[in-house]
Amino acid sequence: MRIGVPKEIKVHEYRVGFIPASVREAVGHGHNVLVETGAAERIGVSDDDYRKAGAQIATSAAEIYETAELIVKVKEPQAKELRLLREGQTIFTYLHLAPDPHQAKALMHSGVTAIAYETVTSPHGTLPLLSPMSEVAGRMAIQAGCHCLEMEQWGRGMLLGGSAGVAPANVVVVGGGVAGLNAVRMSIGLEAAVTCIDINIERLYELDHRFGAAINTIFSTRQSIEDYLLEADLVIGAVLVPGAAAPRLVSEQLVKSMKRGSVIVDISIDQGGFSETSKPTTHAHPNYVKHGVVHYCVTNMPGAVARTSTFALNNATLPFVLALADKGIVGALRADPHLMAGLNVHEGKITHSAVAEALGAKHVEATCAIEG
Questions:
Q1: How many domains does the chain divide into?
Q2: For the whole model, what pTM was predicted?
């Protein structure tokens, strides 16, 4: 199979879908890999590194989209890329279609098969291709939050861990999944006062057992969210419903009542955000102030640490890419129900129920769609 790896063109996105080690594995399986020139230059990987691994170098993205059967990316295709997609092609990347009807319609119109990293599952019920970036985003959220609390960022002027004789900041993490767990770890490491709110009582037991007295675990209700956010200095939104739009747990009225200069870092923004006041931002302009609260809502947070993120992502995606290439797209989907769960669009049909519900679109079961 011919695998194409274009350079990412989203604002300040420097990750890449395939690293040379992944290329070498694919070539070893008998496949051809075409990589756009300069695709990984910003993370210290040259075209020569790709050539040594067995890749061919394309001079443009158009060349890749014209010839590749399988496109391996990181972020959702941008407007320019959507126009290059063609019928019979497969794209494997993060899609986050629930809050993005324009992209969903364009993918359906193009006739491609679109498999989303974020909805591929595992036998353990986890999201193995989302987890590496959730880990990075959770850790980054605390870095970003610390910066946003500084005076020059319109924050409260607080050091997360406080100082001798001065109380630390109150950090509230809403959501105890992979991103939330890593935000909690970083917060505890910086000696903040940490609360995690989640609706899954078993997860709260796990967090309580793991971190003991270093964390306050609270069951999620409207009342508990309101009570704790009113006292928070830094709030991390880390809620997730796979494939669906993020639940809006924080009302605009609640944000108005929060401390002036407090900070919301919304990791859930890829799926629409967990606060009514959240709106997507970029690394070029990551922050804005709404009702006196600093919001950090970058949709590709891990892109800021692109080298770490790229290698972590490739570790997770490579087995699935090889399966798609070795068995063929339909063969790989038939063979693996967990990969099938990643199928979002096929030949003009929405094949993921949560995505269809969020978009108000007709849902066709993935197994039925690929069988024609």
A1: 2
A2: 0.91
